[in-house]
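Dear colleagues,

For the upcoming journal club I promised to circulate an example of a predicted protein-ligand complex. I picked one with uridine-5'-diphosphate because it came up in last month's discussion. The inputs are reproduced below in full, followed by the predicted structure.
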Amino acid sequence: MERNPQSAIRNPPSAICILGIRVDALTYAELLDRIAAFIASAGPHQIATLNPEFVMEAQRNAAFRAVLEQADLCMADGVGLLWAARRQGVTLPERVTGSDALPLIAERAARDGWRLYLLGAAPGVAEQTAQLLQARYPGVQIVGTYAGSPADAEAPEIIARVRAARPDVLFVAYGAPSQDLWIARHRDALGVPAMLGVGGAYDHLTGVRKRAPASVQRLNLEWLYRLVTQPWRWRRQLALPRFAWAVYRDTVQG
Ligand code: UDP
């Protein structure tokens, strides 16, 4: 086959490395197709939705870094990652958040018969989320909901519940990095084809906690909205200027 020397330039890379962490360049539509492929191939797969806080946590937390390295997909949640990619001359196709992916996955699940399990959040919130998704996407199979916690003592019970329900997709809302460490720790025991950490997605969807309005999201200021509405996150959000500085240094020197 004849090689086209332009193809590497015309085709955007399928992944990019930001401060040593791989970020996959996928759209929501491509994510859905990858999930379909994971379900077809049956073995367990882990999907993480990364933001700058993840990348900074991975700089100092070797266990978390290892989890991201072995994850099957690392999606670019967080405008900071799109900005960091642009500094390398790469335009990531779009921001892919857990909160927006969840209803899209449920929509596809209703069409293709995927079985969904909602784990995590405060008691009752996963159930509320399930009701909302069932009303919005008639026929969607939600085969289980459970709050539980990422504590090791609870793992055997949760794993037993999930295995008995045989989901194709498992959403885990324990916040980062706990949810991603938890999925990696129990990946083989759970054996679910697609497992995603989704942070506050159920809270956002049900309105238990308000997400930034669409206009604020469009201005790329969702992080500021979170800082104002959840001021106790300030220490965690210090990761943002640290991230910006590290990326700046990396791309100026690199
Ligand atoms: N959560 C939980 N158990 C825990 C810690 C957190 O169920 O032990 C839930 C919490 O109720 C919330 C979600 O995890 O629904 C974390 O949301 P957040 O927006 O803080 O996610 P992050 O920004 O950390 O991804």
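Two points we might discuss: The first strand starts at residue 15 and ends at 18. Strands lie at 15-18, 21-24, 46-50, 73-76, 115-120, 141-146, 169-173, 194-197.

See you all on Thursday,
B. R.
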